[in-house]
Amino acid sequence: MTLRIAMAQLDMLVGDITKNTQSVIDAALKARDQEQADVVVFPELTLTGYPPEDLLLRPSLEPRIESALAKIQAEVTGIHLVLGYPRRIDGELFNCAGVIYQGQLLVEYAKQKLPNFLVFDDKRYFSEGRDAALVDIKGVKVGLSICEDIWHPEPIAQAKDAGAELILNLNASPYHIEKMGERETLLHKRATETTLPIVYVNYMGAQDELVYEGGSFVVNAKGEKIMQAPWFKSGLYCADFIVNDGQSHKVEPVSATIAPALSEEASVYQAMVLGLRDYIEKNRFKGIVLGLSGGIDSALSLAVAVDAIGADRVQAVMMPYTYTSSISLEDAEEEANLLGVKYSVLPIESMVSAFGDVLAPEFEGYGKDTTEENLQARTRGVTLMAISNKKGYMVLTTGNKSEMAVGYATLYGDMVGGYSVLKDVFKTLVFKLCRYRNTLGYVIPERVITRPPSAELAPDQKDEDSLPSYDILDQILHMYIEQDMSAEAILATNKFDRDTVYRVLRLVDLNEYKRRQAPTGVRITARGFGRDRRYPITNGWHIGE
């Protein structure tokens, strides 16, 4: 006998329970009628979308969830439907997985392990479940688990002890660069501990800074990957199991399609595209406008914008000033032409001069400094926001993680905007991503990639006049931001000099106030600026302690 399980890797809209419910119904009926599936499995908290955050605290949540479950029970028959949703039971809110069949809720499981670290705040909302939950499907005892449960041995061992022969794991596991390999290692460990096959169903889509790349997969009782769904692609992906009564391994998955692995650059680029696309579409922006400087960061941001929503909805604006080089003007125009976007050149000399005239009495007696440089950036920010207001286009900022870490950005200037695809991308990775994007089609001029980065706010200015080389800077930032290493621990690696390390760490700490006012952006690393890293702006912590 064969048991066919459809993994519903879908993109939901957080908070739109009505629309999400209809998507569940449509997918379940498609799994039943077109895929001939016996079971369809949806990810964690599918009905609310993920993460719902404080929407879970609203009094109207409970009746909306009850109404949604009733509608699904009434409209979906002929297939076992496994679904994630929040539910209040005896006054406590639980993160649940329920199994619906022939109009009945057969069994309900409450998530036991509640993560409360990095981007996760489960303990703010949910109570812990305590018991295993099994359901009989075509004679197979199927155990349920939810996301973090699989990262701990106890819930799966508990299900095994209760008689489970197969584990379904419902996930909303967000993307970061190392996550794909971590999941495979984890499921290999759990499967070999319990000698049970596991079906891992993951959410697909983006919510603000978090990206969920799908990549649902199946391992057998030996922990071997038997089936792999694509990453960054919605759909129904089926896995077949042979059910053999009386054998030591009653349920064995049948070898199926394994989607090809993605390189680091490919996965990061697709995460950036998905994050931006969902942010634009779900918030109903008409399009994107961004400042195109002729530099590498804005060139990569423009390519991502076009790949996300199409060239016809993207406008690039070059805003030259006295220090803008002819090379930058030429390269920006070439980028815009290669990608086929609307391109405008709006010189800002007269606007900067007008600001200078108005401020002259206040500046009397002071010499020129970075104030004048920042006026250029802020004039560009005002210009982009005016276009945004008039056309309904969202401003896409173009600063990278290296710059944001050390404050190499102008508040209310180049930080102005609604979203950033490079917010969690170090400068050294920006170069790699540009090379990667050009393998898909040449859109970023070679000179943009190879010439020294510059803000062009002063004559002959180069980034490395103010900062260490990006190769050095990014290594230090990775250790400090993502690994929480102290100054002395970084120095103990014997890679960097003391003055450089202390200077970089001081810049990171001093510029927390800027990052708090920066737009949200795609989370790429295991610890980005935003939900992951929450440090006080005002603090007296001494570097090196």
From TrEMBL:
Residues 3-243 form the CN hydrolase domain. GO terms for biological process: NAD+ biosynthetic process. It comes from the Bacteria. The keyword Kinase does not apply. One of its GO terms (molecular function) is glutaminase activity. Pathway: Cofactor biosynthesis; NAD(+) biosynthesis; NAD(+) from deamido-NAD(+) (L-Gln route): step 1/1. PROSITE patterns: CN_HYDROLASE. ATP binds at residues 291-298, 398. Its EC number is 6.3.5.1. Keywords: ATP-binding, Ligase, NAD, Nucleotide-binding. The keyword Transcription does not apply. GO terms for cellular component: cytoplasm. It is an enzyme of class 6 (ligase). Deamido-NAD(+) binds at residues 374, 403, 514. It catalyses: deamido-NAD(+) + L-glutamine + ATP + H2O = L-glutamate + AMP + diphosphate + NAD(+) + H(+). L-glutamine binds at residues 173, 179. The active site is at residues 44, 111, 147. SUPFAM superfamilies: Adenine nucleotide alpha hydrolases-like, Carbon-nitrogen hydrolase. Catalyzes the ATP-dependent amidation of deamido-NAD to form NAD. Uses L-glutamine as a nitrogen source. Belongs to the NAD synthetase family. This is Glutamine-dependent NAD(+) synthetase.
